[in-house]
Design brief:
This protein has helices at about 1-10, 25-35, 55-60, 85-90; strands at about 15-20, 40-45, 65-70, 80. The chain is an alpha/beta fold. The chain has a single domain, classed as 3-Layer(aba) Sandwich (Rossmann fold), CATH 3.40.50.300. The mean pLDDT is about 85.
Length: about 90
C-alpha cells in the first residue's frame, strides 16, 4: 500500500469503514492510520448504527475527522458528515 501511495501521490487518503463493525472498525482504522496516515474517514451503514459509537471511536482513536457517511445504497446516500446530524440521530 505504501508503494501505491508513493507512486500515485494522492491529495487525500480516506479510510472507509463499516459503522456496524464496532471495535473491529476501530482496530482497522488505527492500523490503517499507522500504515497510511489517512486524512479522514468515510463510514458506511450509519443509518443502521443507532448509537454512532464506531464513528465517534474512530475519530477519537485516530485523531482524524469523519468526512462522509453512507446512509443507504445509492450514490445520493453518501453525505458530507455533519455532527448535528449524528446528534439528531442519537436523540430521535
Amino acid at each position: 500500500m505504501n508503494k501505491v501511495r508513493r507512486i500515485a501521490n494522492p491529495h487525500l487518503t480516506l479510510f472507509v469503514g463499516d459503522a456496524l463493525a464496532g471495535n473491529d472498525a476501530v482496530d482497522q482504522a488505527k492500523m490503517f492510520q499507522e500504515i497510511m496516515k489517512f486524512d479522514g474517514a468515510v463510514l458506511t451503514k450509519m443509518d443502521t448504527d443507532a448509537k454512532g459509537g464506531a464513528g465517534l471511536s474512530i475519530a477519537f482513536a485516530t485523531g482524524r475527522p469523519i468526512v462522509f457517511v453512507g446512509t443507504g445504497q445509492g450514490y445520493d446516500d453518501l453525505l458530507q458528515f455533519e455532527p448535528n446530524w449524528l446528534l439528531d440521530q442519537l436523540f430521535e
